[in-house]
Fold each of these.
Amino acid sequence: MERRAHERYIERAMWSIGRGDRNFWIAVLVLGAMVAAGIYAWVYQIQRGLWVTGLNQKVSWGFYIINCVFFIGMSYGGAMTSAILRLTNAKWRAPLTRLAETTAVAALLVGAVYPIIDMGRPDRFLNIVLYPQVGSPVVWDVVAISTYMLASLVFLYLPLIPDLATTGAALKGGKLQRIYQLLALGWKGTPGQERSLQRGIGIMAVLIIPLAVSVHSVLAWLFAVTARGGWHSTIFAPLFVLAAMLSGVAAVILVVAAFRKVYGLQEFITAKHFRYLSYLLIALGVGYLYFMVSEYLTEGYLLEADTTPVLEAIFIGTYAPAFWTFTTVGLILPLILAAIPGRFPIGRACLASGLVIGGMWLKRFLIVVPGMAEPVMPWDWGRYAPTWVEITITIGSAAAIPLILIIFFRFFPVMSVHEMEEVEHEPERRPTLQPSFAEGAGK
Amino acid sequence: MAGPLTRRRLLGTLGGVGGTALAAGWAPVAFSMTAPAATKKTRQWAMVIDLRRCDGCKKCTQACQETHHLPQTFEWIKVFDVKDTSGASYFMPRPCFQCENAPCLRVCPVAATFKDDEGMVLVDQDRCIGCRMCMAACPYGARYFNYNEPPQYDNPFGHPTPEFPVPQQKGTVGKCMFCVHRTEDGVLPACVEACGMNALYIGDLVEDVATNGVETVRLSTFLKENDAFRYKEELGTGPRVWYIAGHGQLLEG
C-alpha cells in the first residue's frame, strides 16, 4: 500500500471515534428505543410470569430457545471467519477482522441472555453453579457458552491492544486517554511485544475454532439427547455447527457491507472481499444442504413411528410453507445469487446473506417448534403462536447487535490499523499459504 | 469392558477420553439416588392400568387435581381418547411412569428431579430453575410447567415438599408422584381411589402385590396372565406403569 493510501486507511479506521453527528444519534435513538421496548417486554414477563408468552404445556420451548441458538450461531461465523483468515494468513483480511470479531461478541452477548429470559425462575440462575449436575446438557451449555464468551472477548481484545495505544496517543490528554493507555497495557510496539502479541493471537485463533464447534455441538445435544422425533439425530451437532457458521458468515457480510457504506470504507473493503466471503458462504451453504438431505433422507426413508409425524408436518403439513420457503428462498436461492458471476457482486452478496439469515432463523424454528409440538403421546398435537412479548423481545435483541457495534466503534477503530501494517510486512517475513488466492484473484 | 453399557459408564468413558475427569467425579450426584434405606421396609411402587375397564370418565384426573390443588390444565394423570390405526377406540390414562431410567432426571441441570428410595421420581420445586429441559426430555409428556400462579393452598405440613408439593410453585415444573404423601401412610393414591371402574392398580414390586382398592392381585402373575405391556418400552426408560390391553387395539411396546 502506498503511503497516501496508508494514511487514508488510518484516517478512515479512526473516523468514527468520538464522532457524534446527527446520523449517529438518530441510529442510537432508533435502535435504543427498540432495545428499550425489548427490555420493557422482558420486565413485563418477569413481573407476570411465562404465561405472557405463547408457550404452553406441549410446546414449552419457543422463540427464546430459537433465538438463543440463532444469535449464538451467528456469533461463531464472526469468530471463525476471523480465525480462519488469520490462520491461513489471508492478506485481504486486514480491514475485516475487527468487524468480524466485534460482530461475534455482540451476537454472543445477545444470544447468551436468552437462556435466562427463557427460565421460569431466573432468580435461581446461580443454582446451576451451586448444584451443577454435569450429566445435564444445560450445564454443558452454560460451561461451553461462558468459556466461549471469555475466549471471544480475548480474541477481540488482543488485536485491539496496539490500536488502543494508537488511539490513546491520538487523543490530546483527558481522562479518556488514561483509559486507553490503561487498556493498551503499555504497548509500545517493541519486537518483543510484537512477538508475544502474535503468539497470543495465534493461540486464540487456533483455540476459538474448537471452542466454537463445542458450543454449537452442545447446543445441538440439548435437542439430540432427547427421545423426540426429529431431534434424536446423530447428525445434529455437525449440522448445528455448519448452520452457525453459515448464518455467521452471512451476518459478517451484512455488517461489513453496512459499515463499509456508512463509514466510507469503500477504498479498502472492495468487491473482492465480498467475493471471497461469498465463496465461504457458498461452501458452507452447500455443506448445510448436504447435511440436511442426509438427515431427512435417513429419517424419511425408514419412517419410524416417532419421526413420521414431524416429517409429515414439515414436508406437507402445518409447517410445510415455512420449510419450503426456507429451502428455496433461504438456502438454494442465496447460493445461486452468491455463486453466479456478474454485476452487483456486493449487492448480491448482501441479498444472499439477508436471505440466509432469515432462512436460518426459520430453520431453527422448524427444529424447535415441530419437535416440541409433535405428539409424544401419539394423539395430541401442540400449538404455538408467539405473543407480543416474545416478538418484542426478539426485535429488541436483534436491534441490540447494531447498537453495540456502532457504540463500540465510537470508541475503537472500525478497521484494525495494526493488522494492516502487519499484513503489509507479511510477505517479507514469511510466505503466505496461498499467495495467489491472497493477491491475484481479486485483480 | 465387561458388563452392560450404562449411561453412567458411557459418560464416564467419554469423560475420560475427553479429559474431563470432572464428569466422573460428579456423577454420583446424578446417578446414585436409589440406594435402599436400611431401616424401613422399602417399597418399590408400580402401577397397573387396565384399559379394558377404563370408561374415560376422568374422575382420576379430577381427584388428582383436588388432592394436589392443581388448575384444570394440569392433568398429572391424563386420559387420552385414542383411536388407533386399527380403528379401535379406547381410553388411556397416563400418569407419570416413574421410569427406572428416567430421561427427565438426568437432563436436569440442578438435580431438582431426583429419585427416592421407593423408586419415585420427585421434583424439588425449591431448587428447580424452570428451564423445562425435563419437559423436552420426557417421552410421555408427563410434566407440567407452572406458567401461572398456582391455586393457593395452606399446606398443613408447612412448606411444600417434593413428596407433597402443594401449593405448586410458579415458574417450576411439577408432575405425578403416585401420591407418595398418601401411600406412605398406606392410603391409596387419589386416582386409584377415585376410579369407579377399578381400572387403576397401585402395587409394590418387592412384595409382588397390587390392588385397585377392591381386589388384590399377585402382581407378576397378573401382568403375565394379561399380557401387560409398558408404553414405549423400547426407549429403555423402564416405566413403572403397565397397561393391560383388551379392546383389540394395537399393542404398543
Amino acid sequence: MAEKSKIAVCWLASCAGCDEAIVDLNEGVLQVAEAVDVVFWPVALDFKYSHLESLGDQELALGVLHGSVRNSEQEEVAKLMRKKSKVILAFGSCACFGGTPGLANFRSKEDIFEWVYRDAPTVVNPDGRFPQTKTRVNENVLTLPEFYDHVYTLEQVIDVDYYLPGCPPPPDLVRNAINAVISGDLPPKGSTLAQRTALCDTCPRNKTKPERIEITAVRRIHEVEADPETCFLAQGIICMGFATRGGCGETCIGVNTPCRGCFGPVPGVDDAGAKALSALSCLVKAGQYGEPRKLMESIDDPAGYVYRFSQPSSILGRKRRERHV
Amino acid sequence: MSKKITINPITRLEGHGKIEIFLDDDGKVEDAFWQVVELRGFERFCVGRPAEEMTRIAPNICGVCPSAHHMAATKALDALYGVDPTPTARLIRQLEYNAFVIEDHYIHFFFLAAPDFVVGPDAPPAARNILGLIDKVGTETGLKVIEVRKRNREIIKYIFGKAPHPEGGLPGGVPRRITEDARKWIKETADFTVAFARFALQLFKDTVLGNKKYLEMVQSESYKLKTYYMGLVDENKKVTFYDGRVRVTDPQGGEFALFDPQDYIEHIGEWVEPWTYVKLTHLRKIGWKGLSAGDETSLYRVGPLARLNVAEGMSTPLAQKEYEEMFDTLGGRPAHNTLAMNWARLICALQAAEHNQLIADDPSLTSRDIRNMDLRLRREGVGCVEAPRGTLFHHYKTDRNGILTMVNLIVATQHNAAPICLSVKQAAQEFVRGADVKEGLLNRVEMAFRAYDPCLACATHALPGTFPFAVHIRDKNGRILNRLARREITA
C-alpha cells in the first residue's frame, strides 16, 4: 500500500478560528484523517517543533499556515514549514492579507506597549516595567521572542503556492482545497482557491442594487433598521461587497450585516483599501461643488473599513517592512 | 549546577506559550514559569474606530471563543447606548450564548483534555488526541461528539451568520428573528444536547472517577491550589453565563465581594511581569502578593470550577444534582482541585443545554420585536459575560459621535495566568526529577495548564496567541543539555 500523504497545519499570529474551520468539516475530518497523515497540528496533536524539524525536506505534501507574522518565532516556523512542504497554502485572511490584527500597523509598538502595560485603567505597575526579551528572576534567565514593529502577511516572509481567504475560510472551500491537494488536481501556482468575481455578483441583494448607486447620506448600522433585502449601499450603509472577492457564502449579509472584506480584493487589485476608497468616492452623489467631499468626510474611520483585513498587504507601511524581512 | 527544562510549543490548547522549569543542583525543581510569548494590541488599534464595529472586530481576538467576545462587545454597546435589549432579543442572545458554551466546553473536553484520561497520560503522543480517543470510545461515540458540536454551532450560525466569528450584534437587539420552523429544530437540538450532556458526564465518571489512578490524580495535592474564585451569579447566586453580578469567594468559600461588572476597576488589578506578555490579574483590594497561593494570596481563579465554587448552586435541576455529587466527592465547597475543572466543565454544559430547552419552549422566542432603537449615547459602557474560560469584561469609552477613545479588556485566561504558573510549578515539582524526564511525565505538567483550557489568543489580545510547548533542559549558562520537545514522539 502506498504511503499516505503527509500534511501539517500550523498557526502563526492566529486566533485559532482557522483551526476551528478545519474541525467544522465535521465528519469530513475523519475522512481527511483516513486519506492523509496529519503529522503536526499543535492545537490538536502533541507533536513539537522538533518533530517537524526531523522530517525530510519537502516530505510534507501540504503545509497549511494560518495567521500573520508578528514575531521572530513565527517567521522561523513559517520558514521551517516552507522547507518541509511541497505546497504551502496560506489559509485564512490573516495569512493572505494580514487580517484584522493587521490594523495594529496603524499604531507603533511603543504606543501599544504603553497602553497595555502602563496606561490601561486596571494596570498596577508601580515600577513601570515592560515585558523584556530577557529577564533574570533570582538566578534564572527567562526569554521572550522579540515582537516586530509590524504585522506581515505570509507571502512577505516565505514563498506561497496557494491562497485560501476568509475569516475563516468556509467549509466548502476548505474541503475543495484539501481535495485538490490530495488528488493533485491543482490550478497554477499563485492561485486563490475561490471565485474570481466580486461578492456583489453572488449577493442575494444584487437584484435590488440600483443601476447606479448614489449615496446621499452615510448611515451606521446601529442607527438604522436596515432592510433585510435591499443592497446596503443603496441604503447608505457601507458594505465592502463591491470591492471584495466572493465565495464566503454571504454569511454576514444573511444576518443583515454588511460585508467588511474578509475575502480580500478581487483579482488584479494590488491595494484593496485604496481601490475600495476610490470606488466608494464614485458612488457618492455628485451634487454641488464640495458636496461629495463633505459626504466622504462624513465616513468615520474610512481606513478601518477599507483596510479591515488587508492593511499589511497594502502599500502603506512598506518602508518599515524592510527592517525585518 | 542549575538546569532548565523548556517545553515549547505546549500543545492541545489555543495559542502560543512555553514552560521553563529550573532544576537545582540535586535535580529537583527549584522554579517553573508558564510564559505567554505573544501580544497583538486590540485595545489600542480599536481606538478611533466606530464603537459598533467592535462586535465585528472583537470576535477576531479568538477563534475558539469568538462568541464570548462578540457578546461582551454587544453588551458593552447596550451600556454605551443606554439601551436594554427587548425581551425576545435577550432570549435569542441567551440561546446563542448557551449553544456556544456547550460547543466550546465539548471541544475542550473531547479534543483537548479527555485524550489524557481516555487514551491515557502516558500513551504515545501520536495516539493522545481526538483520533486516539475515537479509537478508544468507538466511532459511534465519536460521531456523537462531532454531531453535538455541529448542531449547536448551527444555532450560532442561524443567529449570527458564522460560528468562528459571529457577526451582527447590535446595541439593544439582534440582527435576525427566529421563525416557528427554526424553533422546531432548535428544540430538537436542545433535547439532543441534554441527552448528550448526561452521557458525557457518565463517560467522565466511568473513565476518570471509576479509575482509581485517575481519581487519585484529581484528588492529589499536586493538582490542588488554594486561591480565591470569581464568577458571575444570578439573583439567586446560581451559576449564570449571559448576565449577572460578579461574585468573589475566599479560599475558605466565604463571600469576599459581590459587585456590578461596571465596577470591575475597583476590584481587579493587572500586574506586569517582565518575563511574560500576559498581565497577571489579582484582587486589587488585597494588593499584589506575588506568585503564591494559600490564605494570604491575592490571586483568584475563574472558569468552570470557579463558577461552581462561587455559586450557591446550578440554575437547572439536572445540573444541580451533578453539582451536589461533585462537591460530595471532592469533600465540599470550595474545591481547589485543578483537574476537577474538567468535571465542572461538563456540568456547566449540562446547565446550558437545560436552559436552552426552556428557551426553545418560550412563546416569546419567535416574536418580531428584536430591536430596541431607543439609543442614547452615554459615551461609556462595560459589557460582561461569563465566558467558557471565565469572566470576561469589555470596557469602552467614546467621543460624542460614538468613536472609540478607550478600550480595556480583561479576559478569562488572564485571570488564570498566575494560578496556571503555580499549577505548572506544582506539577513540575511532583513529576520532574532531574533533566532526564520521560515524555509522559512532562505531559502531566501540561495537564496542569490544560485543565484551565487556557486561551492564549485571548490572553494576549494585546498580542495574538500562539502557545507552543517544548522542553529544554539547560545549565546555568543557558546551554541546552537536553531537549524534550516531543522529539521521542515520532513513534
